[in-house]
Amino acid sequence: AQSVTQLGSHVSVSEGALVLLRCNYSSSVPPYLFWYVQYPNQGLQLLLKYTTGATLVKGINGFEAEFKKSETSFHLTKPSAHMSDAAEYFCAVSPRDKIIFGKGTRLHILP
Amino acid sequence: SQTIHQWPATLVQPVGSPLSLECTVEGTSNPNLYWYRQAAGRGLQLLFYSVGIGQISSEVPQNLSASRPQDRQFILSSKKLLLSDSGFYLCAWSGVAAPGDTQYFGPGTRLTVL
Question: For testing the chain B interface, which of A42, A93, A105 should be mutated: the one with the most B CBs within 10 Å?
């Protein structure tokens, strides 16, 4: 069965520090992988996605993620956190027939 | 480009009252459509999805129903709301215009049942 695990329901980083949000997946077929961001009382916005090809994927707002098949991971990073990055982040996997979302990680930015 | 609309944005309803939430997509044809619910601290729960007019699949048994009367219109309904129906309802679409199974989400409807 396919699944997504996001490590840490809450992550706090200082403004200007590295952001690292962890995501591990389980899939019986080569997956498509996604990161979405949700700001309060808004819908989910696609940050980036991996389908095929280059394993390092760059997204909007300076975020990137690397697909590591051997580790079944798709961690999200940003070199320098900004106050506007405070939001909830969802990792998701698509084994072709539907998207399965993780439970989300709320990112807090400390001044 | 494609756009997805949801209304109303917020709704406060008494227990036992009916519900109708609407979602429409512009700029694409024959999209796959989805209804999700977010309850506090519980992530995203897929409620219904549709691959075409009149074709609805339900993911979980519940007090809600969905209909797709037109290609780009998806409606979430209930005859009698329960307190547990409170939450943030999100509509999403995917399809040939969104390769890699990407889903694009609407702005959501905040439903409070009192």
Answer: A42
* Those residues with Cβ within 8 angstroms of residue B114's Cβ, 6 or more apart along the chain or in another chain: B12, B13, B14, B15, B83
- Mean pLDDT, chain B, integer: 91
Closest CA to A78 of A33, A31, A35, A32: A35
Instruction: Give me the percent of chain B exceeding a pLDDT of 90.
Output: 74
Chain B residues near residue A42 by CB distance under 8 angstroms: 107-108
Give the pair of three-digit tokens for residue A23. Answer: 């995501």
Q: Does B51 touch chain A (CB under 8 A)?
A: no
**Phi then psi for B3, rounded to 5 degrees?**
-135, 140
Tens digits of residue pLDDT in A2-12 = 889 999 999 99
